[in-house]
Specification:
This protein is an alpha+beta fold and about 325 residues long. The chain has helices spanning about 55-70, 85-90, 115-130, 160-175, 195-200, 220-235, and strands spanning about 5, 5-10, 15-20, 30-35, 40-50, 75-80, 135-140, 145, 150-155, 180, 205-210, 250, 255-260, 265-270, 275, 280-285, 295-300, 305-310, 315, 320-325. Helix 4 (about 160-175) packs across helix 6 (about 220-235). It binds zinc ion (ZN).
């Protein structure tokens, strides 16, 4: 039996509540959380969404999961937070919490004495997910982010391979086209401050699937997240499904990296998310505000696939413009 926010969770319980959270400056918010406690024994899966306020498909899928799962059918417990960044969701704010302008997915493991976003991170990590055996943190592209579906997992710093292997199995079960493994240090893309990396370092296998974007929610992206979680529930033996999906074309990326803008200007993209490219291919450029003079050009460092792009036309120096996966180590 688990205890969540001071409450003993008994078999058969199902409820949705708002947990008040505040910081020392007087900022306050809530974390909408739910519990579905199965009548049979089994593991605890935590499902979170809404770390970024306008990433809607994961939030919609999480709300539907709560509606659909009956404790009678469940072995183990599903706990979740549907809007980890409630203020950003309620105010339709991209990337940051409007109360302190911080990006929740940059501040993990958080700080109980910090500003509101850092307090939220601490509560999510040490009071919610720490009760679980497995964790899924559902993301999408935010309002000006456009992507092809893929899933991250974290490689643990002390090479605890059994945790990495369980996270990898969850990533495969989500059945998206691409799987990217990241590290907090090393040659690949850094995941310092990210929720899934901090959870994984606690010893809890965790994945961050990315589906949809540009502030849009539709049935296709919502159901892809929903089905991914159902696949993982089946994998863990918690909730059997006759409709488990698989993806025979799934690709494990050799590495993942991001390209950033070196100047202000107009961003022109010559590839779309999901497009394959070859080493040396011109992927994008930045021109001056007249669209005449090329200020910077971006070329592929290796063969790979476009996973994510900034969807807007305007760019500022240091903006992330493209996220790319390297395939088969061809370089
Ligand atoms: Zn996100």
């Amino acid at each position: 039996m688990i205890k969540l926010f001071g409450e003993e969770i008994k078999p058969g319980m199902k409820f949705f509540k708002d947990l008040p959270v505040s910081d020392a400056k007087g900022n306050s918010t809530v974390l909408p959380y739910y519990v579905i406690s199965g009548e049979k024994d089994g593991p605890v899966l935590c499902v979170t969404s809404g770390v970024h306020g306008t990433e809607y498909p994961g939030v919609a899928a999480n709300l539907k999961l709560y509606q659909d799962i009956d404790p009678k059918d469940l072995a183990g417990t599903v706990i979740g937070c549907t809007m980890c960044n409630y203020e950003a969701f309620a105010h339709k704010t991209s990337f940051v919490n409007p109360l302190d302008k911080k990006n929740l997915n940059d501040v993990f493991p958080g700080n109980p004495d910090g500003s509101i976003t850092e307090v939220i991170a601490t509560v999510l990590l040490h009071q919610l997910v720490s009760c679980a055996d497995y964790h899924i943190d559902m993301h999408s592209g935010d309002s000006i982010e456009y992507l092809h579906p893929y899933v991250f997992y974290h490689r643990n710093s002390d090479r605890r391979t059994e945790i990495d292997e369980k996270a990898h199995a969850m990533a495969r079960a989500y059945a998206l086209d691409y799987i990217a493994v990241t590290e907090s240090d090393g040659p690949g893309a850094s995941d310092i401050g990210n929720f899934y990396a901090s959870v994984s370092e606690l010893g809890i296998p965790c994945i961050q699937p990315e589906i949809g974007g540009i502030g849009l929610v539709d049935e296709k992206t919502r159901s892809l997240h929903y089905q991914g979680v159902r696949n993982v529930l089946d994998l863990l033996g918690m909730l059997r499904s006759d409709a488990v999906t698989t993806n025979s074309g799934q690709v494990e990326l050799d590495s993942f990296y991001r390209l950033r803008s070196g100047c202000n200007g107009v961003y022109n993209r010559f590839v779309d998310p999901g497009d394959r490219f070859v080493k040396g291919q011109k992927l994008a450029n930045i021109t001056d505000y007249h669209g005449v003079k090329e200020l910077e050009a971006f070329y592929a460092e290796a063969d790979g696939v476009v996973l994510w792009t900034m969807a807007g036309l305007a760019t500022r120096k240091n903006d992330t413009l493209l996220a790319l996966g390297v395939i088969n180590g061809r370089s």
